[in-house]
Amino acid sequence: QVQLVESGGGLVHTGGSLRLSCAASGSIFSINVMAWYRQAPGKQRDLVALITSGGSTNYADSVKGRFTISRDIAKTTTYLQMNSLKPEDTAVYYCNAEDYDPSRNDYWGQGTQVTVSS
Known about the structure:
Number of helices: 0
Oligomer: single chain
Radius of gyration: 14 Å
Structural class: mainly beta
Shape: globular
Order of helices and strands: EEEEEEEEEEE
């Protein structure tokens, strides 16, 4: 089992920055991919960015050049640096961990609210 706890959300103005953190505990050795998703009211949960155990990253087109995903050396904490924030970035942001074993369900954090005011 893996437990994920997000932090760092809040209210910012357009153009501002926030850094989200996701602390993982438990069987972290089983984690293959860490990712951030977001869900705006009335919309589906969408992938924002991911980072593999090898350090490869991928981003949604809407955040490329503005957001950066990273992990600490111990791979216990994953970050999402968000710059040049826009009102359309407003959502609940969720941390996700994918297990190496594809038969296991992904792990999710409780979510953290990010609100960007215009």
